[in-house]
Amino acid sequence: MLIRKNEVEALSGDIRRIIDGADIDVRDNREGAWSVLKNDVHTLANLRAEQAAALQRERDLMKDMLADVSHQLITPLTSMTLMADLLDSAPQDRRTEFTANIRSGLVRMEWLVSSLLKMAKLDAGAVEFSLENVQSQTLIERGIEPLQVLLDLRGQSVEILGEAEFTCDVRWTAEALSNVVKNASEHSPQGSVVRIESGSNPLCSWISVTDSGLGMSTSDIARVFTRFEGSRSDTGYGIGLPLALAIMRGQVGDIDVDGGNGTGATITLKFYSR
After folding, report:
1. Which architecture, in CATH terms, is 132-272?
2. Predicted local confidence at residue 96, as pLDDT
């Protein structure tokens, strides 16, 4: 097959322009090895463009996430710095108040940083889930254990109904459940009940957590799993439920939300049959 020098030079020039970012279609509809080569160059150029676009999307996502994280950290840091500056000159009762507020802020920041690190590991695919069979009672006890102080302070109780067996990573799933129960506690009034129910059907096993609040609107449900945006609480960061969803999907599970129509929202963790 004879290939003219000017055709090679033209293709070479097009390739250089593609490398520089130009959108050029080098394909032709003729038969032969030369046309196959040109079509392969076009395919390679498209793959390169798609990879560049994906990389830019990742950069934009990282930029937005860093901006959100900075905002979430700077606000309590500024408040704590101000209170620390006032400690020396403040009367004793105010010192006690400032110290308690600083400790509370540090606890919330520690939780945020820990959750973000866990989220980053899940996003990077760096978590290997260790699956085992576990009874719902054991999983629920693991999930609510870190929340006992919060529940006691709010005078809330947990009602546990039903029983089921799950195949999951117990530690990570308890983390997901803990975040869902924490969300339910924060949106339930003082002295109320958070209901946790377990069950199974031919499709999946599940744990549902129902709060005693006013339920969720359609707009709340639409953004409840959006990081830094889904919190309906003034003290929330909007990271707990997205983290729970990432944990469940990492185990080929999912989370459903029922707004409750003003009678309390229900969030259900689903473990599909394997």
Report:
1. 2-Layer Sandwich (3.30)
2. 87
Q: Which of 171, 105, 181 is nearest to 147 (CA)?
A: 181
Q: Which of the pair, 39 or 161, is modelled with greater confidence? A: 161
* Cβ-based neighbours of 202, under 8 Å, separated by 6 or more: 273
Exposure of 163 in the CB half-sphere (CA atoms within 13 A)? 3
Residue 74 has pLDDT above 60, yes or no: yes
| CA separation for the pair 11, 92 (Å, rounded) | 80
Query: How confident is the model over 51-72, as a mean pLDDT?
Result: 74
Ramachandran quadrant class, 259 (left: phi over 0; alpha: psi -120 to 50; beta: rest): alpha
Residue ranges per domain, the chain?
132-272
Measured CA to CA in angstroms, residue 172 lies from 116, 130, 244, 246 at distances of: 14, 9, 9, 10
Q: How confident is the model at residue 257 (pLDDT cuts 50, 70, 90)?
A: very high
First to last CA, the chain: 56
